[in-house]
Design a protein that fits this description.
152 residues, alpha/beta, Rossmann fold, two-stranded parallel sheet, 4 helices, globular
Length: 152
């Protein structure tokens, strides 16, 4: 997954597409404590100089963050979503985005989770199918593989 996201980042950067990182942090959950090794963005997909990193404390990346304002300032209307965790941040942010007036491309092979109530591959497959079928009168979530994502 990291290699897939790295390839997407390179494509986005070469096209001049704005890149925004959302970095979850928590006071209670050790892996997400600010400054810890597990909180750091993985070196394979680290932000380039000048790329925006927005801290967040909820699964919804729009909740009490500057995300919406930053997207509006950049005139972004379509989001390409990757990352972690499929059933929490990826799902919640994708759903919130269409309700806030954005179209979304969820990259089906560029989000992940760990084994929980179900094995991770099953969670990912379920959310890819569920979000692709989500009904909204004005905005869509398209689910497609990384190789089909075009940033032009």
């Amino acid at each position: 997954m990291l290699g897939t996201i790295a390839t997407l980042l390179a494509k986005a950067r070469s096209s001049g597409t704005p890149i925004v990182y959302l970095q979850h942090e928590s006071d209670e959950f050790e892996p997400l404590k600010r400054g810890t090794a597990t909180w750091q963005i993985h070196p394979e997909i680290v932000p380039a100089e000048g790329e925006l990193v927005i801290p967040k404390r909820a699964s919804d990346s729009f909740y009490q963050t500057s995300l919406r304002g930053e997207l509006e300032a950049r005139r972004v209307r379509h989001l390409v979503v990757t990352g972690m965790m499929t059933e929490a941040c990826v799902d919640t942010t994708s759903r919130a985005a269409i309700s806030l007036g954005y179209d979304v491309t969820l990259v089906e092979d560029a989000h992940t989770t760990w084994n929980g109530r179900l094995p991770a591959p099953q969670i990912i497959e379920h959310h890819n199918a569920t979000l692709a079928d989500l009904v909204h009168p004005d905005h869509i979530i398209k689910v497609k593989p990384a190789e089909a994502v075009n940033f032009s």
